[in-house]
Amino acid sequence: MDTFGNRNSYSKTDTDATFMRVKEDPMMNGQLKPAYNVQSAVRNQMVIGYDVFQNPTDARTLIPLVKKMNNAGTLGSVVVADMGYVSEANYRFFEDEMPEVTALIPYNTMLREASRKWRSDDSRVMNWSYDEKADEYTDNDGVVFKWRNYSHRTDKNGKARDFKVYRAEEKDENNQDIPAVYTKGGNVRQININPSWGYQKARMRESLSDETNASIYARRKIDNEPVFGRMKAHFGVGRFMVRGLRKVKIETGLVMMAMNMAIMAG
Q1: CA–CA dist 237, 25 (Å, integer)
Q2: Strand (E) or helix (H) holding 197
Q3: Boundaries of domain holding 150
Q4: 3-state helix, strand, coil in the chain (%, to 5)
Q5: What does the alpha-carbon distance between residue 105 and residue 86 come to, in Å, rounded to a whole number?
Q6: Rounded Cα distance, 239 and 20, in Å
Q7: Cβ atoms of residues 37 and 53 within 8 Å
């Protein structure tokens, strides 16, 4: 367990490495391999910050990398990342601890929410009517969902989230049962609303609707993605040559530095 730490696996040939699903898989069978999660921050295809992590989840690497860059004085005024880095904790971090930094990180369903199909989907709570004064939702079948209780949940990474639980009213104004209230299994329908997450999503939609921010985000693919492509194709770095987290970080830093020098020389 001392070797595992907060991971769920490790390699016997490199106990610092964690088994991850990597893109290098010609058979497309999702094979697990001992690996490290390399993160880089790029500006105009120059690497201005990097770090190496033992966990495969990109969302959990954002805050440590941003803090490291901020301490080093290399963090810019805008942080751009793709949907893999979305989490309520990350959004809250930028709002509470770094309000001077603009974070442009679209959440997974942001583009789909603007589609006609999504807006016409009656099962989506965002398409229901909400009475703010009474604090109740009404779906398109006329079923009213009233607030019942709060729910506090903690995920496996220790991040807490608070939900408001709404329960459907089983009787109409004539005290008659409402068939649409029940699920197929015969249970009364409930919905869980996370006000904090809804607020954070609204802030991100507003931020990315700004033309300047949208143009900055549009540059992410041409700024960041080529870095790892050049590392593999031009520098021939397809895997690490050393073992152990400390040595892997040093090797990564040397490669990143060499790529920056190549850009400066070219």
Answers
A1: 16
A2: helix 195-209
A3: 122-196
A4: 35, 25, 40
A5: 7
A6: 14
A7: yes
State whether 25 and 79 are in the same domain.
yes
Question: Which H or E element spans position 152?
Answer: strand 144-154
Task: Note whether 36 and 240 are within 8 A (CB).
Answer: yes
35 and 105 in a single domain? The answer is yes
pTM for this model (two decimals)? 0.87
Distance CA 76, CA 21 (A): 31
Alpha-carbon gap, residue 145 to 166, rounded angstroms: 5
Residue at 156 is within a domain: yes
Cβ–Cβ < 8 Å for 130, 105: no
**pLDDT (tens digit, 9 = 90+) per residue, 208-265?**
999 999 999 999 888 888 888 889 888 999 889 999 999 999 999 999 999 999 999 9
Q: pLDDT tens digits, residue range 25-80?
A: 666 666 788 999 999 999 988 999 999 999 999 999 999 999 999 999 999 999 99
Residue type, 188: V
Give the Cα separation of 170 and 183 in Å (integer).
Answer: 12
Q: Which residues, in sequence order, are CB contacts of 245 under 8 Å at separation 6+?
A: 16, 36, 52, 54
Asked whether 79 and 67 are in contact (CB, 8 A), the reply is no
